[in-house]
Amino acid sequence: MFKITPAFLDEVGLGGLPEDQKEAFLAHLQEELEVRIGEYVSEGMTDDQIDEFEDIIDGDEEAIGKVLAEVGDYKSDVAYKMLVEQGGFTDGSPELLSEFASIKWLTKNRPDYQDVVKRAIESLKEELRRDKDEILAAANAA
Questions:
Q1: Is 1 exposed, middle or buried (0-12, 13-18, 19+ CB in 10 A)?
Q2: How far is the C-alpha of 141 from the C-alpha of 125, rounded, in Å?
Q3: Is residue 74 a contact partner of residue 80, using CB atoms and an 8 Å limit?
Q4: Which of 25, 46, 57, 100 has the greatest CB tally within 10 Å of its CB?
Q5: Which domain does 99 fall in, by range?
Q6: Which of 85, 135, 132, 79 is nearest to 105 (CA)?
Q7: pLDDT one-digit tens code per residue, 58-107
Q8: Looking at the structure, do residues 64 and 9 belong to the same domain, yes or no?
Q9: What DSSP line would sit under the chain, residue for residue?
Q10: Are 34 and 62 within one domain?
Q11: What pTM does this model have?
């Protein structure tokens, strides 16, 4: 998942937000991005697919186990290794297994997932660039 960082704020012209407001704004943007990605991903999916994916995200062991069984030797998978090495996950942790299963599920059921993420990010960036002056004025008035 794409992580919104202070560099993202700089990129859209919001690096000048007051320091005491940046963390909350970053969290808000991260949540907004996740909602948008979820909306885009769910377009064209069946109710059963949406339910299955939600189960994986929610950490349902049965749903995760089903995906892991389809993958086979998941610990040898490149995505799994990257999550352990770069994602800050503990090998074998429930959070890691849920994240890995969600990636594999999306690869199978929404092969355009990376494009969906890019579209959501670009849409958010455009809005922030357009509204940056208003956002900065409101932040500095608070």
A1: exposed
A2: 23
A3: yes
A4: 100
A5: 46-109
A6: 79
A7: 999 999 999 999 999 999 999 999 999 887 889 999 999 999 999 999 99
A8: no
A9: -----HHHHHHTT-TTS-HHHHHHHHHHHHHHHHHHHHHHHHTT--HHHHHHHHHHHTT-HHHHHHHHHHH-SGGGSHHHHHHHHHS-PPTT-HHHHHHHHHHHHHHHH-TTHHHHHHHHHHHHHHHHHHHHHHHHHHHHH-
A10: no
A11: 0.75
Q: Could you give the count of Cα atoms lying within 13 Å of 94 in the half-sphere of its Cβ?
A: 8
| Structure tokens that stand for 86 in this block | 């770069």
Nearest to 97 by CA among 45, 49, 50, 62: 62
pLDDT at 1 over 80: no
Q: How far is C-alpha 104 from the chain's CA centre?
A: 14
Report CA-CA distances (Å) from 30 to 34, 44, 52, 96, 119: 6, 24, 23, 19, 15
87 and 127: one domain?
A: no
Tell me the two tokens of residue 93.
């942790």
Task: For residue 22, report the phi and psi dihedrals to the nearest 5 degrees.
Answer: -60, -45
